[in-house]
Amino acid sequence: MRVKRYVLPVGLMAMAAIAAFGPFHNRDTADAKGVSDKVNHIVETVAGDTKTAVFAGGCFWSEEAPFEKLDGVVSVITGYTGGHTNDPTYEKVSTGTTGHLEAIQVRYDPKRISYNQLLQVFWRNTDPTDAEGQFADRGNEYRSVIFYNGEEQQTAAKASKSELSAQVKFEQPLVTKILPASAFYPAEDVHQDFYRTHPADYKYNDVASGREAFLKRVWGDDQEVKGMESPFSRMNKDERLKSLTKLQFAVTQQDQDEPPFQNAYWNNTEEGIYVDIVSGEPLFSSKDQFDAGTGWASFTRPLEPDSVDYREVGGFYSDEIQVRSHYADSFLGHVFEDGPAPTGLRYCTNSASLRFIPKDELAKSGYEKYVKLF
């Protein structure tokens, strides 16, 4: 019995029902893979010199969250890999007949986080002794596997597994397989960023499956990999929100767009960087700003590849890709593929989501690393 299918949250089931209601809704599962491809293309365009890592560790909802928050991780996509069909879906993979596993694809900047650090996060969020599934999720699709890209990752994965085995943290031998990476298929839209879009259901799934209790018992205070936390993740968001104006709150928290040509930065020509109005995390640079003629601040790329997240939003006439700050989850605006070189992208951004820091104030404001840009 595949427990996950029986404990699928009511909210998720309702969302799926709404998505199937009619042809007007563009976020149904049939279109989700195409939308994910669009996001993948955008991420690859702005990511620069990044690499990918693929891990399978049971329910991909729970595997995605620990990697999303890591400094140096550009994106995490849930999906299916390791199978023998070309069109896996959640329903097909759940039958256990396609050979696919639920997995995550992690795109990361090797200059900021190492593959070995990613391996440490993987081990701390799976049961490597279970060959038949993970926790309450049973079946081939829930096995734990490290899919390596190239000899370097293969060597690192084997060494990491040997080191963990020598620590004798587990009573049973480690059975996690280390296999070459194969085609990766993004999961349906409803399964992306599940921990953000359905926090209560995500937490319930972690607790009910036994995953949370197991990991706490095995790893205790050592479950969190040290030295990766960003200072922007420690903000008190509730307190920060109290200082926002009515417009800033409506934009960042309620996904509202401000009026064009009537905002602070649509025609700003001063040099400096833009940070999130809530958390202060750096988002854009004036060096990448251009006049798109729309009346909103426009940029060709984010300041740091992992400073923004993307969320697919379906409308009656088209699919749009929202841009949101990574730690505060503030709504910033949208990204379009009609911008100038070098990226061909246009990040159409609300000034109400941003705070501008002139180049002469960067050092005293805590953003000294960006002084060299100017």
Structure explained in plain terms:
With 374 residues, the chain is an alpha+beta fold. Helices cover 29% and strands 22% of the residues. The strands form four sheets. The protein has a six-stranded mixed β-sheet, with helices on both faces. Strands 11-12-16-15-14-13 form a six-stranded antiparallel β-sheet. Strands 10-9-17 form a three-stranded antiparallel β-sheet, with no helix packed on it. Strand 4 (133-134) and strand 5 (137-138) form a beta hairpin. The longest helix has 19 residues, at 29-47. One of its GO terms (molecular function) is peptide-methionine (S)-S-oxide reductase activity. It is an enzyme of class 1 (oxidoreductase). This is Peptide methionine sulfoxide reductase MsrA. The active site is at residue 59.
Quick summary:
The chain is 29% helix and 22% strand.
- The CATH class of the largest domain, by name, is Alpha Beta
Beta-strand content estimate: 15-25%
Contiguous helical run count: 12
What's the SSE pattern? HHHEHEHEHEEEHEEHHHHHEEEEEEEEE
Measured distance between first and last alpha carbons:
60 Å
CATH architecture of the largest domain: 2-Layer Sandwich
Helix content: 25-40%
- Nearest-integer average pLDDT: 86
Number of strands: 17
CATH superfamily placement of the largest domain: Peptide methionine sulphoxide reductase MsrA
Strand order of the largest sheet: 7-6-1-3-2-8
CATH domain fold name of the largest domain: Peptide Methionine Sulfoxide Reductase, Chain A
Total domain units = 2
Radius of gyration: 21 Å
The geometry reads as elongated
Q: Which parts are unreliable, with pLDDT below 50 for 5 consecutive residues or more?
A: 1-35
Query: What profile does the largest beta sheet have?
Result: 6 strands, mixed
Please state the structural category. alpha+beta
GO molecular function: L-methionine:thioredoxin-disulfide S-oxidoreductase activity; peptide-methionine (R)-S-oxide reductase activity; peptide-methionine (S)-S-oxide reductase activity
Keywords: Multifunctional enzyme, Oxidoreductase, Signal
Enzyme class: oxidoreductase
Function: Has an important function as a repair enzyme for proteins that have been inactivated by oxidation. Catalyzes the reversible oxidation-reduction of methionine sulfoxide in proteins to methionine.
